[in-house]
Amino acid sequence: MSSPHKIGLIGAGNISEAYLKLAPLFPNTKIVAVADIAPAAAKARADQFGVAALTVDELLKDPEIDTVINLTIPSAHYEISHAILSAGKHAYSEKPFALSVDDGKKLVAEADARGVKLGSAPDTFLGGGGQTARKLIDEGKIGRVISGTMHVMSHGMEAWHPNPGFFFQPGGGPILDLGPYYIASLVNLIGPVSHVTAFASKGFEERLVTAEGPLKGKTVPVGTPTTINAVLEFRTGAQVTLAASWDVWKHGHVNPIELYGTEGSMLVPDPNFFGGTVQYSERNGDYIPVDTSGAPFGKGNWNGGHANYRMLGVADMLDAAESGREPRCSGRVALHALDVMVSILEAAVSRQVITLSTTTERPAPLTEEDAVRLTTAR
Ligand SMILES: NC(=O)c1ccc[n+]([C@@H]2O[C@H](COP(=O)([O-])OP(=O)(O)OC[C@H]3O[C@@H](n4cnc5c(N)ncnc54)[C@H](O)[C@@H]3O)[C@@H](O)[C@H]2O)c1
Q1: Does residue 330 have a pLDDT over 70?
Q2: Whole-model pTM above 0.90?
């Protein structure tokens, strides 16, 4: 039996709890230490899970730790991921992978040069919902995808996150914060994007924090667009509109992603989650629902009953390191998704159509066999 990879987390905030809770599902992973720029945050999270609290420097120098997960805020992602790779360790970042395409390219080059693996959230498209949709598309159930729509709308993050300032600064906003789920989902289903164009605006100059915590009742400034309407053209020729806004109190778009093909239509479940029901039609027939709770990583296991298998992308990356293959949630997929998002924001400023400078392969489908291997003690 081979021993699990010893993993350190950098960034002991809100999402670190989910990574620590879910890691035991994947026997090739073992989180052994947590670090944070704020030592008290690292200690609190480390004590909660009985792991070591280290400084960032100590964690990066620890020879026992071969993999580090970057759970810092978006503006620190590049610097921390670069430091992890420079320490000769596999790096997996929360999204967005970096804030500029140049920085993303540097990370991919650094990982290649050092012979270590680089991965990035989201890994939600590896869940039952994303993989079932992928299988149905690959089987030709809706034919060739001609077009589609994506809607990601709410009234922002200030009602639930105790420290929501970063969401409203460059690196945040609905495109860079939630866009990664949507773009990765469509790269999985349709493949890479070739061109984008967009319009964008800020609905409000500041946001009132209503979440419990020290900032409750205070306002945070808005330094990035919060309403964006974009069109994406995929290399296949498919055109998909993306309407992303944190300025919307209420809307009627119940299906976050709809795809329209030559032989039918598909309603893809929320790419923010791992499970959900996929629906597709044969031409204009009734929708045929496909429950994905029996598919790998589709079963409800989290607060509110939804499927949450964060750490699946990390487990797949480490499995890839062992067999020498490309991880499914690879730096290259994340770089392309970043290029799409940054180009959308650039197009909204320049009012031009942007030709992307990157491309990627569709990640390999995650089979039942892969799921068994990733969840079985070795
Ligand atoms: N909160 C969620 O539900 C959620 C879900 C999915 C993805 N994410 C992503 O995870 C990342 C973290 O989100 P969060 O909600 O946990 O944020 P958070 O603000 O709660 O925590 C971030 C932590 O990173 C630390 N940090 C910041 N800069 C650092 C640096 N240079 N070195 C070391 N530590 C540093 C902070 O002190 C803080 O403890 C973000 O990229 C976010 O988009 C969050």
Answers
A1: yes
A2: yes
